[in-house]
Structures are given as structure tokens and as C-alpha cells.
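Hello again, I could really use a second opinion on something today. I've been staring at a protein lately and its backbone has me curious. Can you walk me through what the C-alpha cells say about the fold? Take your time with it, there's no hurry, and the full record follows here:
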Amino acid sequence: MIRPSLEPRPVIRKLSEIPQGGSCKAGFLVDKNAGWRNRTPKLDIDKCIGCLQCYLYCPDGVISKKNLDSDGKQLTKVDIDYDFCKGCGICEKICRRGAISMEENDG
């Protein structure tokens, strides 16, 4: 059994002793997917209505808004950055229109 340390925690006495900010800017992913993803989300752009629920629920922030021209209209749809997607499948579960499906990776 591991016992907790009996030494008291250091007390922060000055505001300058509190760490400020993170190690990098928010939303800045630096490592691409290393190929360990089992499933890949596939987007059916015709079913997508641009509700952006997948964007809101994506834990890795790999889904973004994409404007497409279709017969002179601006349609708001989504795009998936596969370089950073981990294949969790949350986007598939949250999409009520069935515009996103998860496909098994070969190999």
C-alpha cells in the first residue's frame, strides 16, 4: 500500500508563483496521427446539413466548418482533418442525419 506523503504542500504566497498559461497555444496540434487509428470517419457531404454538432462534440477539434459553392449558393458543411483524427467515433454517434460513418481501416 502506498502512503501519501506526510510533508505539507508548498503554500503559494505570491501571485507570480502561480503558473501562467499552457505549454503551447490552444488549438495548436503538433503531432500527426501516427497510424494507430482503427476506424476512420467518412463524411457523406450530401447528407450533411451543416448543424455543426460533430464540430461541437469532437474531442480533438479536427472537424471544421467548410463553405461550398453549389449552384451559386453558399452552403455551410464540415470537413475532417484526418491528420489529427484519432477515430473515436463520437462524430458518428452525434450526427442525427447519418452523414458520418466509421469505416474499419485495412491492415
